[in-house]
Design goal:
single chain; alpha/beta; Alpha-Beta Plaits; 288 residues; 14 strands; 9 helices; Rossmann fold
Length: 288
């Protein structure tokens, strides 16, 4: 019998997207497609659908107790036939132009011909960072700005919470002489390693599961696409990793929390640029 898929469409606030995506990936979805007002997740239809739906309902009940945005959440399940699988998932994933430098593309599509753009090939799957999320796009744009200002210096860079490895790959393509990429999620490390190989960046990028505090180096450019809570928790270590006059890019910050983040880093860093992308803020800071 040809296998089928369960498609879950979630309409929710942008503030909930990362938490929902993470839960659905951990629950076994091999593909999550982030859209303008929510996301689609896919599950093999030969599993225990009743148990899956029960777990999803339980998760959203818990989310409703924690988030003021949960009242906007809508769920819709449907069965997708095997022959329609690629049309239901892959048709949403297109090559995307990001910033001035990049095409981000899935491996099954050829990027448009554009000689001045660098191609990053990312397999959508069990790690964040496919270039579609506003926080990732903002980081890529600010990496261009920082790398341009460091053009005369063959800079070393650090990607904290690398996820799919997309930012580490971008740093390699922007000319960093050395890139470190860290993550504490074994799944993310596995996906990042595969993406580094596909993008011919495995030799340049040092991928590790070490804690940030265990790295005894400083870098001209550090990027952390996390959450406001994680950034504040790691603030002291992040500060220590940025070399004198180096740049720090912070993302994954909800607008209502950006003031707390900027205050925390104000003593040692000045704000070079700040970008707003819907409910998110992305910061480009420079060490004084």
């Amino acid at each position: 019998m040809a296998e089928s898929w369960l498609q879950l469409s979630v309409r929710t606030s942008a503030a909930n997207i990362d938490a929902v995506s993470n839960f659905l990936i951990e629950r076994g979805s091999p593909g999550v497609v982030v859209k303008k007002y929510g996301l689609d997740a896919f599950f093999l239809g030969n599993g225990d659908a009743a148990s899956l739906k029960k777990d999803v309902r339980r998760f959203f009940v818990a989310l409703s107790r924690l988030s003021s945005h949960a009242d906007k959440t809508r769920l819709n399940w449907k069965v997708v036939k095997a022959q329609n699988w690629h049309n239901s998932w892959k048709r949403f994933i297109k090559p995307r132009r990001v910033g001035k430098s990049f095409w981000v593309t899935p491996p099954w599509l050829e990027p448009p011909k554009f000689r001045r753009r660098r191609v990053i090939t990312i397999e959508p799957g069990m790690a964040f960072g496919t270039g579609t999320h506003a926080t990732t796009r903002g980081c890529l744009e600010f990496l261009e700005v920082a790398a341009d200002r460091l053009r005369d210096d063959k800079f070393a860079a650090l990607d904290v919470g690398t996820g799919s490895g997309i930012l580490a790959i971008a740093l390699d393509k922007l000319g960093a002489r050395e890139v470190w990429a860290i993550d504490n999620d074994p799944v993310a490390l596995e996906v990042a390693r595969e993406n580094l190989i596909v993008n011919h960046a495995a030799e340049k990028v040092h991928l590790t599961g070490k804690n940030l505090s265990a790295i005894r180096k400083t870098f001209s450019l550090v990027v952390a696409n996390l959450t406001a809570e994680s950034i504040l928790e790691l603030a002291e270590d992040l500060e220590r990793k940025v070399a004198r006059k180096g740049f720090l890019i912070l993302s994954g910050i909800l607008q209502k929390k950006v003031s707390a983040v900027t205050r925390r880093f104000a003593a040692r860093f000045r704000t070079v640029k700040r970008k707003r992308a819907r409910e998110w803020a992305i910061l480009l800071l420079q060490r004084k």
